[in-house]
Design brief:
The complex is a heterodimer of chains A (about 325) and B (about 350).
Chain A (H helix, E strand, L loop, with lengths): L5 H23 L7 H19 L2 H24 L5 H19 L25 H6 L3 H19 L1 H11 L1 H6 L4 H27 L11 H11 L4 H21 L1 H4 L1 H24 L1 H8 L3 H11 L15
Chain B lengths: L1 H9 L2 H17 L4 H13 L2 H26 L7 H18 L4 H28 L4 H21 L32 H19 L2 H11 L1 H6 L4 H27 L11 H11 L6 H23 L5 H16 L2 H13 L4
Helix pairs in contact in B: 2-14, 3-13, 4-8, 4-9, 4-11, 4-12, 4-13, 5-6, 5-7, 5-11, 6-7, 6-11, 8-9, 9-11, 12-13, 12-14, 13-14
The chains are: A mainly alpha (about 325), B mainly alpha (about 350).
């Protein structure tokens, strides 16, 4: 397990980690952006096309962020202004993002385009063990590492983060304390959407360079499940992604010689979805509750912290102004 | 208020026309005349009787799935897993088609029953997962992808054609295993009978049964339904099984008439489309078959569009998708009026 190429695992995890951070921010403030899979597809396409036409990967990332924020705005507007179900709007946008990306990107499939160049950090990259993993990467990976730390700090340690969480947990109380509930929900949903857009571009410009129809299809749903596994914490979510990608690479390397190529492909494809079911069963299922209830008293609290998660109390709910 | 009444009357057409306008702009941006493009779609549906029957053949599995979703939506469930239930239905029917060779009536009956059972099975798994705490959206999504992986595995492995490694599909089913088709089209009158029967069953269940009422109570207000003695677990499971059975029937019809063998993309997203159909129909019972017919027409017409203009056939999905989005967002006139009323009076919250 430990002789995996952790630098590659980190690189391949980075886009999903960005998406998980974005969705976590959005859900922490109370907006479920279920369009994640479609948002990521359309921004992966936009990012690639913008970078291809301008010759600059940075332009691609900016365009992708704008598209992601726009999709998130539609979800937030439907929920906050029109009081529609976030799930319904998000689902429609998921499919629309998928078909729009197929149509708009049809002339740009399988072309060579710009990508994010490697950017080793002098001195640090020569550190033993951690040097090659963390400091011999590209700007997107550094951004991801900083993002996880910053998101964690912002949500759990800063004063605006307190307002963010109170908006997602007790919007009425936050409103009474003078928090601009609606404004914050729009703002953080769109920030989260922009990050989801960046995650899409991180695929088409860095990890899976190029564009083809359905380029990132399915990954968005995995990110949505990881947000739950992560207990709406960016740190735990990032660990979840690393674990998933790590296990996949491990299977790819060690199972293939024994199980043969065909069944390895089946196992590799099925793995994320099986893990999704198992993990969600563990963190939100009823078995875990009874398991913890029967555990020795000293272990109860740590087990609960490790295994059980609860969503923000007002996730997807409306603000009742009275 | 007179002005409002006038606006209210024409309002339902506004989101639909806006969707057409937006799609037209998209076409213009790609250098294609909207008249030519929409004309090609029209031609793809109505130019010959064969094409009309093709649209009908596409409509039937879509209608079956959408009818099932009416039941789960009534119970307040988001059965995204319908795509997988549809695929499992196709797998169940294919399994019988490939392993038995009986006289046609018996063969087809068994195939359809296998499809129904397999669809219900997959829905049952999603319902069980929900009971154990996994939301039906995530359980369903995972099961959809597992169904696709299972299909690919069967095609490349156990059900592989004898001549070897084709990833595209199984051998064609023998003649007695396929639904009786009309002329040289993929339309089977029998499937129309099945769909009409299934839809009638849904109408009966939702409009004229105590069960339908319990589902409605569950969907509208789970807490008071619980206080009234409605068992949410039991009703949710039954609703899911019912929907899965209809989706499975849809998958069976699809593989036994539209195709004649199990293919890799056997569903091609019909389950997801059915969700869009029901959302566009506003969850209304009698509007659902019509909206499904509209979807089936646009999407089967888009194939001619691709042949004629070299544009990607996903244009049909965009037209319908934008329409669903606009109708969902702006279709309800009262909602929009409230939006403008509240703007003047309320402070920014």
């Amino acid at each position: 397990m430990f002789d995996l190429n952790w630098a590659t695992v980190l690189l391949q995890s980075a886009p999903l980690i960005i998406a998980v951070c974005g969705e976590t921010i959005s859900e922490r403030v109370g907006v479920v952006n279920l369009s994640l899979d479609g948002s990521m597809l359309i921004s992966a396409m936009t990012g690639f096309v913008a970078a291809y036409l301008s010759g600059s990967a940075l332009v691609g990332f900016l365009a992708a962020a704008a598209v992601g924020a726009f999709f998130a705005f539609i979800v937030a507007y439907g929920s906050l202004a029109l009081r529609l179900s976030q799930v319904a709007v998000g689902f429609v946008l998921t499919l629309l993002g998928d078909s729009l990306s197929a149509f708009l990107g049809q002339d740009f499939t399988r072309l060579p385009g710009p990508w994010v160049p490697k950017l080793p950090i002098p001195v640090l990259k020569d550190l033993p063990v951690i040097g090659p993993v963390f400091f011999n990467q590209d700007a997107m990976v550094y951004f991801t590492l900083l993002l996880v730390a910053a998101t964690y700090w912002w949500i759990f340690k800063s004063r605006p983060g307190l307002e963010l969480r109170s908006t997602g947990e007790r919007p009425e109380a936050a409103f009474a304390r003078g928090v601009h509930v609606r404004r914050l929900r729009y703002l953080y949903a769109m920030v989260g959407g922009a990050l989801i857009g960046i995650a899409g571009a991180a695929y088409s410009l860095d990890v899976k360079i190029g564009w083809a129809e359905g380029h990132t299809r399915g990954l968005g749903w995995i990110a949505l499940a990881v947000v739950i596994f992560g207990g709406w914490s960016p740190l735990r979510g990032a660990l979840g992604v690393l674990l998933l990608v790590g296990v996949r690479s491990w299977i790819g390397i060690y199972l293939q010689p024994t199980a043969g190529a065909d069944s390895t492909v089946v196992i590799l494809n099925a793995l994320p979805w099986l893990l999704m079911l198992v993990v969600l069963l563990v963190v939100s299922g009823k078995f875990t509750g009874s398991l913890i209830a029967n555990a020795p008293p000293r272990l109860k609290r740590p087990l609960q912290r490790l295994l059980q998660v609860a969503p923000p109390a007002a996730l997807g709910a409306d603000l009742k102004e009275g | 208020m007179k002005g409002w009444a006038w606006l209210e009357r024409i309002w339902p057409s506004v989101p639909i026309l806006s969707a057409l306008a937006l799609t037209s702009l998209l076409l213009l941006a790609f250098g294609t005349s909207p008249v030519v493009a929409f004309g090609a779609i029209w031609e793809g549906v109505f130019s010959t009787p064969e094409r009309m029957l093709t649209a009908l053949a596409f409509w039937i599995p879509l209608l079956l799935s959408a009818a099932g979703l009416l039941v789960t939506f009534q119970a307040g469930l988001w059965n995204i897993g319908i795509e997988g239930q549809f695929i499992l239905g196709a797998l169940g029917a294919s399994w019988v088609a490939l392993s038995l060779h009986l006289p046609a009536p018996l063969q087809i009956t068994l195939e359809i029953l296998a499809g129904i059972a397999a669809g219900a099975l997959w829905a049952g798994v999603a319902a069980l997962l929900k009971r154990w705490g996994v939301h039906e959206i995530f359980g369903g999504l995972a099961l959809n992808n597992l169904a696709i992986i299972l299909t690919n595995y069967l095609i490349a492995g156990p059900w592989q054609p004898p001549e070897g490694g084709s990833f595209r599909g199984t051998v064609p089913f023998h003649e007695d295993a396929i639904l009786p088709l009309l002329g040289s089209t993929r339309f089977s009158p029998l499937s129309l009978v099945l769909a009409a029967f299934a839809f009638g069953l849904v109408v009966l269940a939702l409009r004229n049964s105590a069960w339908g009422l319990r589902l409605k109570a569950l969907g509208r207000n789970p807490r008071s339904a619980f206080l009234l003695g409605v068992s949410s677990n039991r009703e949710a499971l039954l609703a899911m099984l019912f929907c899965g059975a209809l989706a499975g029937l849809g998958g069976a019809v699809r593989v036994l008439s539209w195709f004649d063998s199990l293919r890799q993309s056997i569903s091609g997203g019909i389950g997801y489309l059915a969700l869009m159909v029901v959302i566009l129909a506003g969850f209304r019972l009698y509007l659902t078959p019509l909206v499904a017919l509209f979807f089936a027409s646009v999407l089967s017409g888009s194939i001619v569009l691709q042949l004629r203009t070299q544009l990607h056939s996903s244009l049909g999905d965009i037209l319908t998708g934008v329409m669903v989005l606009f109708v969902l967002l702006f279709g309800d006139f009262a909602r929009i009026r409230n939006l403008f009323k509240s703007r003047g009076s309320k402070e920014d919250v």
